[in-house]
Specification:
Helix content is 39%, strand content 15%. With 307 residues, the chain is an alpha/beta fold.
Length: 307
């Protein structure tokens, strides 16, 4: 990546759909991923290998990996939370995996049915197992910037978790604002602390609960962050956090960076058609803004002053 390039991982097929009450059919999920594969994303999170009784929207992810048409320029990733999920992923030939533990005791119990310490140990073990099997792995910390139940999260707890993930051999660290509590000032303070112990690329997974999402994106970009998770249309949210709104809309984030002269490699026009298809399927308007603007040349997202 050049210093001005931005790496966006599309999370719509996983984080986006897992919060929808009406489950998408397997063929609808295949169609969505195949369409996203034509947009130019470097990485797409296809789904998660979790218990379908808890997250029924993610049932049959094994079959999904067999049915999608793989673009050689796209890395197809998935979320795992335990060794059973890892084995399912390996059996499907998944080349990249993500695994997370929450820094909030309350959220960890709801989301993973375990304490923060137990969740951290589980992720450390999964990182080790992934490396032994030759699978690339990203490790993340959820609820970094606050929790609806627990409130503020001690930064020392986050740093301890990141340190253990680094020692275990994670190739990338993801910091997730699961409740959408982050504000730009707080985000910069946390990033400065984490950057002090981590030389690996940092990725951010931001939610937009209070409308601070784009301001947080810019604050992170100023801190040198170039890797972000987004979801087409702004779909998503955590099923175990009431009223936690969705992820940042991919199309808005792509337009934002392209307007500043940062390359994402993503075809905005193609992405807009993906969002339109989702709105038709869901029967509602999604929160992303760019898709609802009057038509104009998406290859020229904004006027950048020149001398």
């Amino acid at each position: 990546m050049n210093s001005t390039d931005v790496h966006i991982e599309e999370n719509g097929p996983r984080d986006g759909l897992q919060n929808e009450k009406g489950a998408f059919t397997l063929q609808e999920r295949v169609h969505l991923i195949d369409h996203l594969s034509r947009c130019g994303f470097p990485r797409i999170q296809v789904g998660s290998f979790v218990d379908p009784r808890r997250v029924p929207q993610m049932a049959h992810t094994d079959k999904l990996f067999q049915l999608i048409h793989r673009n050689p320029h796209v890395t197809y990733s998935a979320l795992i939370l335990n060794r059973h999920g890892l084995q399912r992923a390996v059996d499907c030939g998944v080349e990249h995996l993500s695994t997370f533990a929450s820094a909030s005791e309350a959220h960890s119990l709801k989301n993973n049915n375990c304490s923060v310490e137990k969740g951290t140990e589980r992720v450390v073990s999964l990182i080790t197992d992934c490396r032994e099997r030759g699978v690339r792995v990203q490790a993340g910390v959820m609820s970094v910037f606050g929790c609806q139940t627990e409130g503020a999260i001690p930064i020392d707890r986050v740093l301890a978790m990141v340190s253990r993930f680094l020692e275990a051999g994670a190739e990338e660290i993801n910091l997730a604002d699961t409740s959408g509590f982050a504000n730009p000032r707080q985000l910069k303070e946390v990033l400065l602390e984490v950057q002090g112990i981590c030389s690996l690329p940092l990725r951010l997974h931001l939610h937009d609960t209070y409308g601070f999402g784009m301001a947080n994106i810019y604050a992170a970009w100023e801190m040198g962050i170039r890797r972000f998770d987004t979801s087409c249309g702004g779909l998503g949210g955590c099923p175990f956090i009431p009223r936690a709104s969705g992820n940042l809309p991919t199309e808005d984030v792509v337009h934002f960076f392209e307007a500043m002269g940062c390359s994402t490699g993503i075809d905005l026009g193609e992405l807009v058609t993906v969002v339109a298809g989702l709105e038709t399927k869901l029967g509602r308007t999604l929160p992303g803004r760019f898709s609802h603007l009057p038509s104009f040349d998406v290859s020229k997202p904004a006027c950048i002053p020149t001398r």
